[in-house]
Amino acid sequence: MALLIIILSILLAWLAWRFLEPFTPAWFFAFMWAVQLFMAATLLQVVISFYFMGLLYIVILCCCMMAGTIVLPRATAEFDAGRTLSEWRAGVVLAVLLLLAAGNPLLAIIQNGFDLSEMFSLETLLEMSNEMAESRYDQTLEVSLYSQILLVFLYLASLYGGYCFVLGNRRLKALCLLTLLPSVVVALTQAMKMNFMTSVMLFLTGALVSCVSNGIPVVINRRKWLWGIGGSVAFLAFLYLTMMFRLGQINEKASTIVSQKFIAYATGHLPCFDTWFTEMRTDEEPLHFGAHTFYALSNTLGIEKREQGIYQERLVIGKNGFEGEANVYTAFRPLVEDFGVYGAPLFMLLFGYLSQLWFCRIRRWKRAYLSETLLCSAYAYVLWSYVTSFYSYLSYIVAFFLFYVLLHFTYDEVPVDTADET
User: What DSSP string runs through 311-329?
Assistant: First the structure.
């Protein structure tokens, strides 16, 4: 079975390269999962247990999304965008968003009985990070309504910062990069990795959609490869550091513990979904028809109750001396729970069609702000699919709505002959 997954993952990557337009959501989805499946069937299976049936099902879902994409013809970019970035308005918006985003970690520190000056000492910072992490897992962490509102702006700042980054001058680019700083503070003071990972992902999502909608070609040259590799190493190193902060100490013992956990967190989603799909799932369970994929709405409306972390079942995934546990089940588990084994591929077929439709619209109509926002959400779902459904959290949904509003104030419009969409 491992050999079959290796062959299919290579075939999946080839099909994406041969038939899909580069940098579309389906293109990212296929390559992202092809690489992970190849790694699972080659290196990871040495220390991690796999049944492989769940991995085979992921291949099917990827193929369905690609099939939904190729129905539409490729869009030809119009480089006369009919608009130009208003750098002063974008700068003002970014400054306001940065201030609001910074309020989230600072308010959390104060509300939980710490002093802001404790951030500037490594010893007190480690204690703060450990205590706040323990309180979060015990569900005793003080989280006010104001903190939840400011969390929306933390995500919005990263998304809007990435969008403006590719269009602005050096000063504006520097301001855009600063939008990631609040999530860095959250990671260091509360040992919350997901906030930082989400902010980075949203920043990249905003930058990518901005390139597509403004006709800026994405060229991967040697310099960008080096920047990408360096950025990835720095990103992983920072996540590793936050896990050390979670233990409240930096030493050799903590490094050994974190190394085991780091591998489990980075790869655990594959064996977790594979095990659930093969051993834990039953056809007798009732379907939820979108309630789990769109937990943000169903939880808000009282239809379903979303638990912290979505799923509570922790699985032992290691073997051959590797002691690893994980409870991350990817976006595919809620998809199957909602629509069943046969309905989930149909959902991915439709999702592939819609994501390509939004991609085409923003290449043809340069004020298609709604399509730009929806395409951002599609990229976010794709890039976050290794964790869970991106539509599970209300703060993300609200951030996208506000992003749509901000797009109307981002540009100075230039009259064009093409039809517009708002």
Answer: ----EE-B-TT---EE---
Give the span between the Cα atoms of 422 and 418, in whole angstroms: 13
Amino acid at 333: R
How far is CA 237 from each of CA 3, 123, 181, 187, 232, rounded to the nearest angstrom? 32, 20, 16, 13, 8
CA of 358: how far to CAs of 116, 227, 344, 348, 373, in Å? Answer: 44, 29, 21, 15, 9
Q: What is the dihedral of CA 107, 146, 87, 358, to 10 degrees?
A: 130
Residues 340 and 174: their CA atoms lie apart, in Å, by 46
Q: Alpha-carbon distance 206 to 170, whole Å? A: 18
- What is the per-residue pLDDT across 214-233, written as a single tens digit (0 to 9) for each? 888 877 777 878 888 888 88
Which residue from 128, 204, 261, 164 is spatially nearest to 379, judged by alpha carbons?
A: 204
CB atoms inside a 10 Å sphere around CB 221? 8
Distance CA 294, CA 389 (A): 7
| Spatial distance between the Cα atoms of 12 and 63, rounded to a whole number of angstroms | 7
What are residue 315's DSSP bridge partners? 326
**Residues 52 and 384 sit within 8 Å (Cβ to Cβ):** no
Residues 285, 282: Cα–Cα separation, whole Å = 6
Lowest mean pLDDT among 28-32, 235-239, 255-259: 255-259
For residues 332 and 53, give the distance between their C-alpha atoms in angstroms, rounded to a whole number: 13
Q: How many CB atoms lie within 10 A of CB 271?
A: 27
> Residue 94 and residue 164: Cα distance in Å, rounded?
9
The pLDDT > 70 percentage for the chain reads: 93
